[in-house]
Amino acid sequence: MATGEHGSIRIGVIGGGQLARMMVPPAIHLGLRISVLAEAEGSSAARAADAVGDYRDPETVYAFAETVDVVTFDHEHVPQPILRELEQRGVAVHPRPDALQYAQDKILMREKLAALGVPIPDWAAVADETELQRFIDAHGGRAVVKTARGGYDGKGVRVISDAVEVRDWFTTLAEDAHGGHLLVEELVDFTRELSQLVARRPSGETRTWPVVETIQRDGVCAEVLAPAPVQDPATLVEAARIGELVAEGTQVTGVLAVEMFETRDGRVLVNELAMRPHNSGHFSIEGSVTSQFEQHLRAVADLPLGDTAMTAPAAVMVNVLGGPAEGPMPVRYAAALAAHPAAKIHSYDKLPRPGRKVGHVTVTGEDLETVRVAAVAAAAAFA
Amino acid sequence: MATGEHGSIRIGVIGGGQLARMMVPPAIHLGLRISVLAEAEGSSAARAADAVGDYRDPETVYAFAETVDVVTFDHEHVPQPILRELEQRGVAVHPRPDALQYAQDKILMREKLAALGVPIPDWAAVADETELQRFIDAHGGRAVVKTARGGYDGKGVRVISDAVEVRDWFTTLAEDAHGGHLLVEELVDFTRELSQLVARRPSGETRTWPVVETIQRDGVCAEVLAPAPVQDPATLVEAARIGELVAEGTQVTGVLAVEMFETRDGRVLVNELAMRPHNSGHFSIEGSVTSQFEQHLRAVADLPLGDTAMTAPAAVMVNVLGGPAEGPMPVRYAAALAAHPAAKIHSYDKLPRPGRKVGHVTVTGEDLETVRVAAVAAAAAFA
To answer: Which residues form a coiled coil (chains A, B) (predicted)?
Structure first.
């Protein structure tokens, strides 16, 4: 691998959101050079942004790639043709486009997981309202419909009982979005959601973190409990097995998050994949010997992976969402720091808008419930 | 306090070494804006450097200060007249020049500590060889001589038995370096060295970390054991008392490191002061809930201070010094990461020169001796 001045490896991140932002601290500690291609001035990772430009513009991306040794991502939105051309030009891209496609297109993801024998909900790719209604009728009169591409944080997801409820999607979906097909899935009767983080480097080494429980509100991750409280130990073993199976099966490089449902009847079904550091892994900044951000950098640089053991028996992460602020932010900020000296605050330096993730708080300690109460209180003080 | 875009506080650091570099990660997490006035392109904190210029040039410093809300330091070398003019112009400077002078001039430091009643070695400020020889003769025929200014890592320190051994210093010392005086101190019969870190914010809140043991080789910090192994509990209490006494007595703002000797007859005597994050506090990045770098930023921004409890029973930091490298650095780096997955590596991105601090390694865990063996081995793999 070619390297920059002093022999440091140069990592280029496409996308300037909080995930790129949180890759900067471990890059500094590891002595890696990190550059960010941000969408706009003032993005969350602006501090590290060396370039501002549109990731959908091929020439912008190619020029950025020439300044680094490996390209990785803050998000999954860079078009496949650009990624494949980068590889043609000899650029190291991680995750590789062959893997990343499964995080870009939910129908491809379902096809792949089915082929790997990974347990997933019943699903179908439907081309029109008739096909969709047939699936709904066969699954108790209600189902989850998702656009194949572009959804996040509950966007691009609807629970419906009549196909007409997504007529707008059939009408407006671009042909390139999986031929205009929608993904439909059975409504899973789950008791909780789990997330399994795995890191894999190009030469094949993988490391898993303890599986975590994620708590969503309005389709957005609200809290993460690490490790997931043990209800049935077999479930945790199964989650780790699935995580490693998906990592190997997709040949992902970097961090993979596998979001799962734990069902009332004791099964674990895969819900979503992300091929980058993920909200469910933010706890690892303080809660793991090696954070998901450090591990992602090690993995995409094909450096040996770090220990993923917990640093404490329990870690709880609570997201901070933007909302109507009472009083000036610096005053609220100081009050929150004063009231919660053991809470680790992460501000994304974003303008607060209602519902927007603007930061998170992590607390670690001996007892999960105590830690959770402290983390929720600290996050509320910042909200 | 005036603030930047999004209400973020803007902190300006003068000096681009590894201390400035390691302030960047907590600034990112806290959502503070950090700028660095570096001495040169390619300095350790170059990633965050917004300006490159000479800190001895008043106009360079004044222009830099106008871009931030508070000025702080990577080193103690900015001349007092520049610091005082900054305050005259209404710039928040922390630590303030009235405090920082005690870290800039060892004779002023000894005078102040004596006035505060802090236990220190016998000392004198001497103007010529006759005065110096008189002190040596009165203290068993050997003594430690230090230049009042500009010393670090064993430089500017000599153990002598005859005043002629520092004739060169008397000849060449600038008149502005404490009127050409040298500091002479008794040789202390110490059993080990301790360091007490304290943070203090302008509004007066202070926090202390557990006192640590520092192990020097050739006048350079080699290892730090946190917390210091308990030999006599009274010693640890005394170290904390002295740390707080010095912090209050000097009205320091930011992080203060008080380096101390533990003597064979059970006393604790102050050796040196530093008014910035210090090598003896690097363990706190992983070993404390709030690292010295985060705490320094909170303190100089006059934000509430964080919890300084240990995150594990033991943390050991080992410095990595540059030396003759065997094999290309990226290859050695990968081998070291592979062999030590639980070691936390900190690279300063400096060109290695023999004896130069180019990084450090920290390991945390349950048992100090086990952790120490692991940290020493990991640092050796990088050296």
So the answer is: none
Determine the structural domain holding residue A25 and report its residue range: 5-93
Determine the Cα–Cα distance for residues B265 and A304; give it in Å rounded to an integer.
49
Inside any domain, residue B177: yes
Q: Is B155 part of the contact surface with chain A (CB cutoff 8 Å)? A: no
**SS3 assignment, position B369:** helix
Look at residue A176 in the predicted model and tell me its pLDDT.
Answer: 55
Residues B129 and B165 both lie in one domain: yes
Shared domain check, B371 and B315? yes
Asked whether the predicted pLDDT for residue A272 surpasses 80, the reply is yes
From the candidates B18, B22, B29, which should be mutated to test the interface with A, based on the most A CB atoms within 10 A? B29
Q: What is the pLDDT of residues A90-136, one digit of tens each?
A: 999 999 999 999 999 999 999 999 999 999 999 999 999 999 999 99
Task: Compare all CA atoms of chain B with the CA of A305 and give the residue at the minimum distance.
Answer: B341
- Identify whether residues A85 and A136 lie together within a single domain: no
Question: Mind listing the pLDDT tens digit for each residue in B340-383?
Answer: 999 999 999 887 778 888 899 999 999 999 999 999 999 999 87
- Residues of chain B contacting A290 with CB distance shorter than 8 Å: 341
Span B287-330, pLDDT tens digits: 999 999 999 999 999 999 999 999 999 999 999 988 655 555 66
Type of residue found at A220: V
- B171 and B229 assigned to the same domain: no
Q: Which two tokens stand for residue A23?
A: 């890759």
Q: What is the CATH number of the domain that holds B167?
A: 3.30.1490.20
Chain B contact set for A362 (CB, 8 A) = none
Closest CA to B194 of B210, B182, B212: B212
Q: Considering its fold, how many domains does chain A have in total?
A: 3
Q: Is residue B110 part of a domain?
A: no
Nearest to B349 among A6, A22, A47 (CB): A6
pLDDT tens-digit map of B122-160: 999 999 999 999 999 999 999 999 999 876 666 789 999
Residue A177 lies in a domain: yes
Q: Which helix (H) or strand (E) holds B168?
A: helix B167-172
Question: Chain B within 8 Å of A240 (Cβ-Cβ)?
Answer: no
Residues in chain A within 8 Å Cβ distance of B48: 47
Instruction: Note whether residue A110 is domain-resident.
Output: no
Detail the residues of B annotated as belonging to a binding site for ATP. 106, 146, 185-188, 193, 271-272
Q: Does A4 touch chain B (CB under 8 A)?
A: no
**DSSP conformational letter for B342:** T
Domain boundary among A155, A186, A217: A186
Answer yes or no: are the C-beta atoms of A127 and A179 closer than 8 Å.
yes
Which residue from A7, A34, A348 is facing B328, i.e. has the nearest CB? A7
Chain A residues within 8 A of B9 when measuring between CB atoms: 330
- pLDDT reported for residue A227: 97
- Domain CATH number, residue B273: 3.30.470.20
Candidates A224, A182, A183, A200; CA nearest to A315 is A224
Q: Does the beta carbon of B329 lie under 8 angstroms from any beta carbon of chain A?
A: yes
B341 near A CB under 8 A: yes
Of B1, B8, B347, the CB nearest to A349: B8
- For residues B376 and B278, state if they share a domain: yes
Residues A89 and A127 in one domain: no
- Residue A361: what are its φ and ψ, rounded to 5°? -130, 135
Q: How far apart are CA A192 and CA B30, in angstroms?
A: 31
Q: In terms of domains, do B167 and B237 share one? A: no
Tokens of B20: 């400035």
**Distance, in angstroms, between A272 CA and closest chain B CA?**
28
Burial of residue A204 (CB within 10 Å: 0-12, 13-18, 19+) is exposed
Least confident of A269-273, B85-89, B245-249, B318-322: B318-322
Question: Given A74, A93, A112, which residue is the final one in a domain?
Answer: A93
Give A24→chain B minimum CA distance, Å.
Answer: 7
